[in-house]
């Protein structure tokens, strides 16, 4: 079984821990991080007010280099925490699409991801990116909690 | 005939600025256009000299501010800000966003929007990337606040400098009138950004910084003192009868001596000479277009008076114009018409041209459309996300800030 574990800066520890608990011991595991290229581009964009002209960039690493270095160290920390030997993959682009492409390229038999919304049992527990991935993934999805949820179920008023 | 020539050169300069052709840099097109309008008589030599005489000190002021901001970078002001933000946030995304708001609003107000975009935003990205949090809300906040937090002081935005030179209010009165609009803009940005990015700002276990990151960084005292003294100079400029540009120049010189740049080239580069030439050329072309009928057209579009509906109309028309032709040309066009009426109208125009560009990240809808057509796959910025944020913030800020300005005009 090939498993792809998609981690983010916020919930990577919970995601890796639950993947280790729930995936079979012989699963080939790949840990994936996707850097949001729109954020990197916005951070390095010359911005308005200068009619979009290129300006001399201040010396030092570029925004993209910083992003790549942070992604590498996050993946390394995740692989160490997983502990059973895992490949790591760093991608950049539109987050939700890159995750889906990584699933298809591997190809993964199962995708593990953490909820990225409110820690409650409600629709908002899944944020924009994770919801897109869950909706469009072509393989079974293992959806874990990013942080400990409030376990008592609050039924919406019309279902009480 | 003169009218057509003036409008064609204006269109050429604006197109060159947006299109960024390698073979026709915008500053050369603008400078050539300025020469052409004078050579064919669309603008008298005297008229051109008046326009340059009016713009010269403003452009010098901008150059001094850019050099001052770059000196602050060399002195480590922005690195220190990054470490203080990381330390103060305790790894909590919402606290980090609050600190980013403080840093971006302060940097924009004091050192201009350019300092926020070029010098602060990369630091904010690096700071957020090293914490267990998504950099997304923090980077979007910087990008938005570079515009909407540029209302406070004449030095916060080149548009403000142009209007400040034209409307004749003192530095302190400008700040007093714009304080309420500035705060209104910050409040709306906070409410909208924390709602839109609620998922990214949630939870995450607090992180106790350790090792070198836990130590309070040493402050770049000299640079901060220079910036503080420069600001104090601005505040007393009308009392002592010295133009604010001289305090900015003194600050820039002091920081350049104390923190020498790597080379003369990098010092000149920080002042962006090509951009300064572009502003001067565009100013002459807009003067030519103004005397040949553009001013009367804009005049007929804009309401007169300083009651609230008139100020709101000026702000909205200016915001639309800024999205059609970019905020700098919009300011040059509108300021020539409204500066005669009252400071209220000039400041309402500034609200429009400063906040309006937040609809897109490139400064105007016109530029965005051009980029989408010409470089369809060149850029990954999520246009939908940015347009949504713009649509949620810009109209509200235009209304709230203009109401704030109207209230301030009744008191100050």
Give a description of the structure.
The complex is a heterodimer of chains A (160) and B (412). With 160 residues, chain A is α/β, with parallel strands linked by helices. Chain A contains 5 helices and 5 strands; from the N terminus they run E-H-E-H-H-E-H-E-H-E. Chain A has helices spanning 12-22, 37-43, 63-82, 95-105, 128-136; strands at 2-6, 28-36, 87-93, 110-114, 141-144. Chain A has a 5-stranded parallel beta sheet, with helices on both faces. In chain A, strand 4, helix 5 and strand 5 (141-144) form a beta-alpha-beta unit. In chain A, helix 1 packs parallel to helix 3 (63-82) and helix 4 packs parallel to helix 5 (128-136). The longest helix of chain A is centred in the middle third of the chain and has 20 residues, at 63-82. The relative contact order of chain A is 0.21. The mean pLDDT of chain A is 87. Chain B is mainly alpha-helical and 412 residues long. Helix content of chain B is 76%, strand content 0%. Chain B is built from 18 helices and no strands. In chain B, helix 3 packs parallel to helix 11 (244-258), helix 13 packs across helix 15 and helix 14 packs across helix 16.
What oligomeric state do these chains adopt? Answer: heterodimer
Give me the number of helical elements of chain B.
Answer: 18
Helix content estimate of chain A: 25-40%
Low-confidence parts of chain B: none
What is the SS-derived class of chain B?
Answer: mainly alpha
Low-confidence stretches of chain A: none
């Amino acid at each position: 079984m090939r498993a792809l574990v998609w981690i983010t800066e916020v919930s990577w520890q919970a995601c890796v821990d639950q993947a280790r608990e729930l995936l079979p011991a012989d699963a080939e595991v790949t840990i994936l991080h996707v850097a949001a290229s729109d954020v990197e581009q916005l951070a390095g964009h010359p911005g308005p007010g200068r009619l979009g002209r290129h300006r001399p960039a201040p010396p030092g690493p570029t925004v993209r280099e910083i992003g790549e270095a942070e992604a590498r160290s996050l993946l390394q920390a995740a692989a160490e925490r997983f502990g059973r030997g895992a490949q790591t993959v760093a991608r950049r682009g539109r987050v939700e699409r890159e995750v889906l492409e990584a699933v298809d390229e591997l190809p993964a038999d199962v995708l593990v991801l953490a909820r990225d919304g409110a820690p409650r049992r409600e629709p908002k527990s899944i944020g924009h990116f994770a919801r897109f991935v869950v909706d469009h993934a072509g393989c079974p999805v293992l959806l874990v909690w990013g942080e400990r949820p409030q376990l008592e179920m609050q039924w919406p008023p019309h279902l009480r | 005939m003169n009218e057509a020539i003036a409008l064609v050169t204006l269109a050429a300069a604006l197109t060159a600025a947006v299109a960024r052709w390698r073979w026709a840099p915008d500053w050369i097109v603008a400078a050539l256009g300025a020469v052409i309008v004078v050579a064919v008589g669309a603008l008298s030599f005297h008229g051109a000299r008046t326009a340059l005489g009016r713009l010269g000190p403003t452009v010098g002021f901008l150059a001094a501010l850019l050099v001052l901001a770059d000196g602050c970078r060399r002195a480590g002001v922005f690195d220190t800000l990054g470490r203080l933000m990381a330390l103060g946030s305790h790894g909590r995304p919402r606290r980090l966003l609050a600190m980013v708001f403080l840093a971006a609003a302060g940097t924009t107000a004091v050192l201009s929007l350019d300092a926020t975009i070029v010098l602060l935003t990369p630091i904010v990205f690096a700071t957020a990337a090293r914490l267990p949090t998504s950099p997304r809300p923090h980077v979007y906040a910087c990008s938005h606040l570079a515009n909407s937090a540029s209302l406070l002081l004449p030095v916060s935005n080149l548009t403000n400098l142009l209007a400040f030179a034209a409307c004749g209010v003192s530095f302190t009165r400008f700040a007093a009138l714009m304080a309420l609009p500035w705060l209104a803009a910050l409040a709306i940005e906070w409410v909208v950004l924390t709602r839109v990015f609620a998922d990214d700002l949630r939870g995450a276990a607090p992180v106790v910084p350790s090792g070198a990151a836990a130590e309070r960084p040493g402050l770049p005292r000299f640079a901060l003192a220079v910036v503080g003294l420069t600001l104090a100079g601005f505040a007393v400029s009308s009392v002592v009868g010295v133009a604010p540009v001289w305090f900015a120049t003194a600050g820039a010189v002091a920081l350049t001596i104390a923190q020498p740049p790597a080379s003369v080239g990098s010092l000149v580069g920080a002042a962006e000479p090509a951009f300064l030439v572009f502003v001067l050329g565009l100013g002459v072309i807009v003067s030519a277009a103004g005397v040949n009928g553009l001013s009367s057209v804009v005049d007929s579009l804009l309401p007169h008076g300083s009651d609230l509906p008139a100020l709101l109309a000026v702000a909205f028309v200016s915001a639309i114009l800024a999205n059609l032709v970019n905020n700098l040309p919009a300011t040059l066009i509108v300021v020539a018409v409204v500066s005669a009426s009252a400071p209220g109208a000039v400041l309402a125009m500034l609200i429009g041209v400063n906040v309006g560009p937040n609809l897109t990240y490139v400064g105007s809808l016109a530029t965005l459309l051009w980029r989408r057509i010409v470089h369809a796959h060149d850029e990954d910025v999520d246009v939908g996300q940015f347009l949504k944020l713009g649509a949620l913030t810009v109209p509200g800020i235009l209304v709230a800030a203009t109401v704030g300005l109207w209230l301030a005009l009744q008191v100050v």
